[in-house]
Amino acid sequence: MEKKNNNTGNKTPPALKTAAGGRQALPKSVLSNEDNGQTARLLKKAITRSISKVHTATRLQLNQSLSRAGIDITPDMYLILRALWEKDQRSQQELADDVFKDKASLTKLVVNLEKRGLIYRTEGELDRRSKIVALTAEGRALRHRVYPIVLDLIETLETGFSTGQLVMMQQMLEKMYARLKR
Q1: Is 4 within the bounds of a domain?
Q2: pTM of the model
């Protein structure tokens, strides 16, 4: 069943029922700029906005915490280091896949980590064009300073939620991600 949009005379799809209390589908008038701000209101309530706000606030908090501790890395550099702390000596392509970065973005981050003396690159054994990224002693040692900062941030984020809520939230976000990666 469709309902009539009183502002434009166009028909809009029926409301989409969601666990969050029901949201209305975007009206066809969105494309014609005749929705009188309805689209902006719907987008402002979209879950993607909340996800973006949490992502931005988390990166900012991590950046500030690392800076206060005198650790000269960005949140993106932390992701690369964390991947290497989990498994050292990886190809740049494997790292790019693990941290969800394209090769160009990863290369810039790797170069900056290399300049800081935290990692080094060598040629791949089978393919000399392939670069293997590995931690230096300083890069390995940094883990003991960074992990407490990250764990404190995670604790701040998770406080006030039950284990069940956190598991459900993780599952929902992973499901959303899987839909986008199809």
Answers
A1: no
A2: 0.75
